[in-house]
Amino acid sequence: MTTFLEAPGDRRNAHAAAPAARRAGLLWQQVEPGFWVANADGNFGGTVERVGRRYCARDAMGTVLDVFADAASARDRVAERYAQVLPTADGWE
Q1: Which long-range contacts (CB under 8 A, 24 or more apart) does 57-66 make?
Q2: How many Å is the maximal CA-CA distance in the chain?
Q3: Phi-psi map region of 79: left, alpha, beta (phi>0 left; psi -120 to 50 alpha)
């Protein structure tokens, strides 16, 4: 299992996370080859799945957000979506 964090200053990934992705603070785990799951403080954030040569980004509700040529872009899109619905101290917006 591969684990990495989308966070400010994190250089373990080959790409720089988008600002929304950094704010989301998602922890990504590769649970099987070609399938990653995002989590932030116990909240499910979405998935990225390799389909052929492309990467399908899905939000926490399973809605397809888009399909990308690389996994990093797909993870960024999931993080952007998660940041839009990020739970606050008062609960979900």
Answers
A1: 57/81, 59/85, 60/85
A2: 41
A3: alpha
List residues bridging with 29 in a β-sheet.
Answer: 3, 37
CB atoms within 10 A of CB 56: 17
**Tens of pLDDT along 24-50?**
688 999 999 999 999 988 889 999 999
Question: How crowded is residue 62: how many other Cβ atoms within 10 Å of its Cβ?
Answer: 8
> Given CA atoms 13, 15, 16, 22 in this order, what sign does their dihedral have?
negative
DSSP letter (8 states) at residue 6 = -
pTM of the model: 0.71
Kindly report the length of the chain: 93
Q: In the structure, how many helices (H) and strands (E) does the chain have?
A: 2, 6
